[in-house]
Structures are given as structure tokens and as C-alpha cells.
Specification:
Length: about 375
């Protein structure tokens, strides 16, 4: 749902625009990338993120700029009015290192390792007092006692990883799926907690990045291993299990990656993108909107793709990573950007009218 980059501060947006989330001053959908408007000034972009109807940009100066839907205060501006162009979010005396947008809430990480949250707290996804239904201002999470180095917001759940490599999870967005899948066994605490809770099963590894999909979680370790847990409905977690839900982190098999270490991992709502140490890019999970960037026919057999690949009905998903050979340069940024292929229409999202194209390409508006 978010991506990091460093380039001239020319932010192009396209896709669905019902809530002003493109930051262009209007609510018309855009199929071709257009420059965003507002308080964006020349400089460098550190990171982008898009949520259900809102968008956020972090500048190299550590400024946070936001726009779009704001009915739950997810923009952190102190009010609940929608914002049509990117506006500076007031963070007095603090610089932003990272931002991640959930469906209707936002996680902000400062350069001092503090996590701030705003927006809906209906599922405890803010990680603060459960008596607060939502917040229009950024609230600090007090229960994590060590500096945080990365945050990730899912649909209605949240993740952080600390400087010592510990992964915390909170928010009840996955509790319903967990209960149905695990019954009559109890649901683990990290799926039901409304304050940050240590994720079991990662005690022997040092994590340094996290990512979140709509109902799954990802941890990348310092050794280049990827651990996944949560919903496996679209095969986004593992090729070693047919379970629809995995309560504990499972190690991703490196064999389909050529045995290489993973250096970067990004997550859409129901698919994942990983880059290995040699620069190769692999995708897996749901692919019926073309979000996997594959050129093979949807009716290709499992044996034709990889020796052990498992595919869903009509080839709509694959649970084994496969390389996207033509993904490079600016196109890679699009493929790894927030909500790719989900038609959410936030910053960097694959255009809605182009979602039938199953191969990465440079959108015409950027030529």
C-alpha cells in the first residue's frame, strides 16, 4: 500500500477519484497520470502511500502532505472535511520518516522512532485507547517502549517493527477471519489486540521491514527472508499450505526466487511484489486485475509456470512467486506502488481503465 523512492518532486496521480484522493482539485477519475496540485514544492519525494480514499506524501525534508477522504480524520488535520489538493499536515517540531495509509486511518513514523496515528479506531487499529472511536489529530502510541523503524497499515490492522527487530501487530481487522478459520481453537492475541502486541514465531529472527495487505501481514528479515501470516485466500502467503488462514508467520520458500535473498517487499491488498539481491522482481497472489504483471495466459497449467505452482480458478491467483522479466525503471515504481492493481485510485495506483493490461508498462501520461 506504500512505496519509497527519491526523485524530483513531481507527483503524478491517476485512477478513481471519488474523494479527491488524486490531489488534483476535482473529483473526476483519471485514466492518464496528471500532476497533483497543492502544497507540493520542488524537492525530493521520500515516500508515497495510498489508502481507501486518501493519499499521503513524505518529502525529503520530512514534511507530510495529505489529501482526499477525511470523514474519520484520517488526514490528521484537526478536522473531518475532505481535502481536494495536497496540504501540509502540522507536525510541530517533528520530521516524518515514513507514512502508511490504511482503509480509513493513517500511521505516521517520526524520525525519532515514534508512531503517530489518526483516523478510524473502530477495530482498534490506531493502537491507542479503545474508547476513542476515531481521531482527527495524530495521537502517539505509548505502549511500544523502543524506537520503531517502519510501520505498515492494512485494511483494518497495523504493524510496526522496532530497531531491535521485534514485530508488533494490533487492530481486530483480521479477527473475524481468524475465528472462522481456526474454530474451535482460540484466536491468537495479535489478531484481537487493540494495542501493539508482539507477533509470536519471529523471536529467533531480526526483522527490519513490515508490509500489510488487506488481510495479511509480511515481515522481511535482515537475512533476506520473508515471513507471512494472515489470510491465504489468494495464495499470497505460501505454496506449502492449502489453509485459507495462517495464524503464525510462515517462511517463504526461496526456491522460486532462485535461492536469492529478498531486499525489498511490497504488498497490495491481495498480492505481493518482492525484489531480490540481484535486482530481479517477483510477484504472487491475486492476479485477476493484472496486478502480477504476467504475460502468460490465465489458463496456463501449473507445470508450465513452475514445477510446483498452484493456481486458482481461471488462473486468478498463484501462490508461488514468478519473475516479472520486463519490469524495470519507472515501471517498477508503478508496480510496487500503493494499491497496484486494486483500482483504489490513490497515489501511484495502476489506472482503473488500464487494469486489463497484465504486463508492466509506462503509462502514456508519463511519456
Amino acid at each position: 500500500m506504500d512505496t519509497s523512492l527519491q526523485t524530483e518532486l513531481c507527483v503524478y496521480t491517476w485512477g478513481t477519484n471519488s474523494y479527491w484522493q488524486l490531489g488534483q482539485g476535482h473529483v473526476e477519475d483519471r485514466s492518464v497520470p496528471s500532476l497533483a496540485d497543492g502544497a507540493l514544492q520542488m524537492g525530493t519525494v521520500r515516500q508515497l502511500s495510498g489508502g481507501g480514499g486518501h493519499s499521503a506524501v513524505v518529502s525529503e525534508k520530512g514534511e507530510l502532505l495529505v489529501c482526499g477522504q477525511n470523514h474519520r480524520g484520517q488526514l490528521g488535520l484537526g478536522h473531518s472535511l475532505e481535502v481536494s489538493t495536497f496540504q501540509l499536515c502540522p507536525l510541530i517540531g517533528q520530521r516524518v520518516a515514513h507514512v502508511s495509509c490504511g482503509w480509513d486511518f493513517t500511521l505516521v513514523l517520526t524520525d525519532h522512532g515514534q508512531v503517530l496515528t489518526c483516523g478510524s479506531n473502530a477495530y482498534g487499529q490506531l493502537g491507542v485507547s479503545e474508547t476513542i472511536p476515531h481521531s482527527v489529530v495524530l495521537l502517539p502510541i505509548q505502549s511500544v517502549k523502543e524506537p520503531v523503524i517502519r510501520v505498515a497499515a492494512g485494511l483494518r490492522h497495523s504493524l510496526t517493527v522496532t530497531g531491535t527487530g521485534s514485530v508488533y501487530q494490533w487492530g481486530m481487522g483480521l479477527s473475524g477471519q481468524a475465528k472462522r478459520a481456526l474454530s474451535p481453537q482460540p484466536v491468537p492475541a495479535h489478531f484481537t489486540s487493540k494495542i501493539p502486541c508482539l507477533v509470536p514465531g519471529l523471536e529467533q529472527v531480526i526483522s527490519h521491514r513490515v508490509a500489510a495487505g488487506s488481510a495479511h501481514c509480511v515481515s522481511l528479515t535482515a537475512e533476506g527472508d520473508v515471513f507471512l501470516w494472515g489470510s491465504n485466500k489468494h495464495g499470497q502467503l505460501t505454496n506449502s499450505s492449502t489453509d485459507s488462514f495462517l495464524p503464525r508467520p510462515v517462511l517463504l520458500d526461496r526456491s522460486p526466487l532462485g535461492g536469492e535473498k529478498v531486499t525489498h517487499v511490497h504488498s497490495g491488498w491481495t498480492h505481493l511484489v518482492a525484489q531480490t539481491e540481484s535486482g530481479r522482481v517477483f510477484t504472487w497472489g491475486r492476479g485477476n486485475y493484472g496486478q502480477l504483471g504476467r504475460t502468460e495466459p490465465t489458463n496456463q497449467s501449473a507445470d508450465q509456470q513452475t514445477g510446483s505452482a498452484l493456481r486458482g480458478a481461471a488462473g486468478q491467483w498463484t501462490c508461488v512467486p514468478a519473475e516479472v522479466k520486463i519490469l524495470c525503471g519507472a515501471t517498477q515504481g508503478v508496480a510496487c506502488s500503493p494499491g497496484g492493481g486494486t483500482n483504489m485510485g490513490c497515489v501511484g495506483t495502476v489506472p482503473r481503465q488500464m487494469s486489463a493490461n497484465h504486463s508492466p508498462f509506462l503509462p502514456s501520461g508519463l511519456l
